[in-house]
Amino acid sequence: MSNNHATTMNGAVRGAAAREYHVREHHPENGTLLGFWIYLMSDCLIFASLFATYAVLGRNYAGGPTGAELFDLQLVAINTAFLLVSSITFGFAMISAQAKKLGAAQLWLGITGLLGVCFLGLELYEFYHLIHEGAGPSRSGFLTAFFSLVGTHGLHVLFGIVWLVTLMFQLGKHGLSVENMRRLSCLSMFWHFLDVVWIFVFTFVYLMGVLP
């Protein structure tokens, strides 16, 4: 009986070791973060292509309005402030999450989401105003490139907000688990990436666009 018991125990240990090895093989440490970095690099290529397109078409007005005639820098500056402040509030959310303060983390995430919604609202208002003035994306090469670049960034912000809301529900249900902390880190990288891209958009498109 003792030999059978020992054989059974050895089999159980080997089974547990096999299961542990199986999990480690399919979920390598930092594998998710590495994969997300690769995704962000691919996103960089997308925005690089859009910036290059705008660099080529940015002065092709086809007899239509120019950036100096269309852009409201005061409005764009307010919108930029919304997005940059949202990056700060997301940082506070990460600090709270690392301190295991779930309520504070969700509060800062909520504020971040509201700032993102304000950013999108002003951007949609700008698009509506331009189209209402007859400066839609089909008016000239300049406006086609403008709407493509700024609109793609806006879609990324929208996806980020949806992701943020989903993650807030996950935090409410499962708390600050290892998986949710990993997801929060990925979303943090994505959100800060969008802020960096917008700084380039603000400088390259808007500030340089109002120059004669």
Automatic annotation (TrEMBL):
Alphabetized InterPro entries for the sequence: Cyt_c/ubiquinol_Oxase_su3, Cyt_c_oxidase-like_su3, Cyt_c_oxidase_su3-like_sf, Cyt_c_oxidase_su3_a-hlx, Cyt_c_ubiqinol_oxidase_su3, Ubiquinol_oxase_su3_dom
Cross-referenced Pfam families: COX3
Membrane topology category: Multi-pass membrane protein
Localization terms from the record: Cell membrane
Protein name per Swiss-Prot or TrEMBL: Cytochrome bo(3) ubiquinol oxidase subunit 3
All copies of domain Heme-copper oxidase subunit III family profile, residue ranges: 29-210
Oligomeric form and interacting partners: Heterooctamer of two A chains, two B chains, two C chains and two D chains.
Protein role: Cytochrome bo(3) ubiquinol terminal oxidase is the component of the aerobic respiratory chain of E.coli that predominates when cells are grown at high aeration. Has proton pump activity across the membrane in addition to electron transfer, pumping 2 protons/electron.
Primary localization class, coarse: membrane
Species of origin: Massilia haematophila
Keywords tagged on the record: Cell membrane, Electron transport, Membrane, Oxidoreductase, Transmembrane, Transmembrane helix, Transport
